[in-house]
Each structure stands twice: as structure tokens, then as C-alpha cells.
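Retro notes - structure team

What went well: the batch runner handled both jobs without manual restarts.
What didn't: labels got mixed up in the shared folder, which is why I'm recording both outputs here explicitly, each with its sequence directly above its C-alpha cells.

Job 1
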Amino acid sequence: MNPISRASLLPGLAFANVGHAAEFWSDTTRITSIYPHAGGMTFNVQYSNPLSTCGGTRWVVPIGSPNYAAIVASLMLAHGSDKPIQIHVEDQPAPCEPVVDRSVVF
């Protein structure tokens, strides 16, 4: 069996996201507070999500979410070191506390 080269994958990857709605990523922001609780971790940021139903600065990572530990650890690290982040949510329109499923720490 021949190994698959990266070059042979590129044409297929170019169309991998066709038909999906645009993804929502926040602007680059900083975390202002973190509130761990029994249901997961809620946190506030400087960025205000215009789609939120209650001000737009509050976000949540529910316990049991895929990659919960990694997301929470990276967000806590970002907050403790005042690093900028971007956060991604799947639920549209966003509720009061949009559920974060991915994040980037810069």
C-alpha cells in the first residue's frame, strides 16, 4: 500500500468546507474574569459579541464538552498571563452565554 502524500490531499481539502455556514470567531480579546462552577467554566472578555442576548461579554465552556480540560487550561493560562485570545462558538444565534468549543491563545 502506498503512503498518502500531502500534495495528494490538498485538492480534496480545498473543498472540505464547501456547503458549511461561515464560522463565528470573536475578535482578538482578553479575559477579564473567570468563574469556575459545577456546570463548567464561565468567563468574561473585553470583546462584546453583537449576537448575544445579554451584553455579549460572557462565555461558557460546559463541563463534559469535547476537549474541556484543554480549553479550560488554555483559557486559564491566557488569563493568568494576560495573553490575547480568540474564541469560537457553534450556536447561532448566540444565547446569553455562547458555548465555546474552540479557542486560540496568542
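Job 2
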Amino acid sequence: MESILLTQYLRPDGRKEIVNTEVEDNIAEMAAGVIMSVEVLRTGEVGIWVKYPDWEEEDELHDVATNGPGERSPKNILSKLIKECHRIGRRGNEQTH
């Protein structure tokens, strides 16, 4: 397991805090150079966004996780998004989704 950094937006005012989370080593390698952010939504779910710095805003990948363990846990969704981001690469404006 390896630690990666994310920006967490905190309620109620969206204040930013840099946090870390542990992911599998291969996911951490794929996350190199990726901008990642998370926010606990008013529903209690967790919004997760990932992108490369040169991607346009509309190319950013995002998903919503349940705030707890399980298949749709924040860690699992973050890993899924990092893999997809890595698969697409730095050509974010060419992706289709």
C-alpha cells in the first residue's frame, strides 16, 4: 500500500484541505501526475473527481461513492477513476464518455 494526496473540499464553505489515502501500489503509480479531489456531499455520499492538469474541465472524470465500506466505497471508486484516467492518458480532450 502506498499513500497518495487528494484535495478534500470541506463543508460548509468549500475550504480545501490536502489529505492522504492508502491505495494499492499499482494504483499509486497510475495516480502520478493526476489531480484528485473529493467532497462529502449533502446526501452523505462522496463525490470524487480526477483529471490530468492539461485536461479541460469537461473532460474530468467523476463518480459518486457511498460513504463507507463496500463495492462503491470511496477507495474503490477512486481506484476505478484513477485506472480510467491512466487508460485515457493526457489526451483528455479526445475522450468520449
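One thing worth noting from job 2: The chain has a mean pLDDT of 93.
We'll revisit the folder naming next retro.
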